[in-house]
Amino acid sequence: MAPIRSSESAVTVDVHAAKGFVDSGHKYLDVRTVEEFKKGHPWNALNVPYVFFTPQGREKNPEFLEQVSLICDKHDHIVVGCQSGVRSLQATEELLKAGFEHVKNMGGGYVAWVENGFLVKALQEEL
């Protein structure tokens, strides 16, 4: 379960390592938009969008840290994912800078999760 990539502060793990962490009790924080999340997400994922898509382009969620703090403690072990691994890396770096201690980025994102046949859920199933 070696990191596949590191930024200055964030560690990125591959999808298999990420699934292992989630299976062992880590929280999965999905930072995609609500619309993306509703189409499908890893089972038991928590959703806090890192950016919003607007007519003017991408806009960072100004309440991202506050919203994450409502559902995650700074001592929680968290795997952060998005669609492909770019937004989640940015979110992971921001969480680490804010004092979250055990945060890892999932490389490949939801695309890799689905490609590997891991369990997913769509919100339509929750009705």
UniProtKB/TrEMBL annotation:
Provide the transmembrane region boundaries. none
Q: What is this protein called?
A: RHOD
Per UniProt, what is one GO molecular function of this protein?
catalytic activity
Instruction: List each copy of the Rhodanese domain by range.
Output: 22-122
- Matching Pfam families, A to Z? Rhodanese
InterPro entries per the UniProt record, alphabetical: Rhodanese-like_dom (IPR001763), Rhodanese-like_dom_sf (IPR036873), STR17/STR18/HARC1-like (IPR044684)
Q: Which SUPFAM superfamilies match?
A: Rhodanese/Cell cycle control phosphatase (SSF52821)
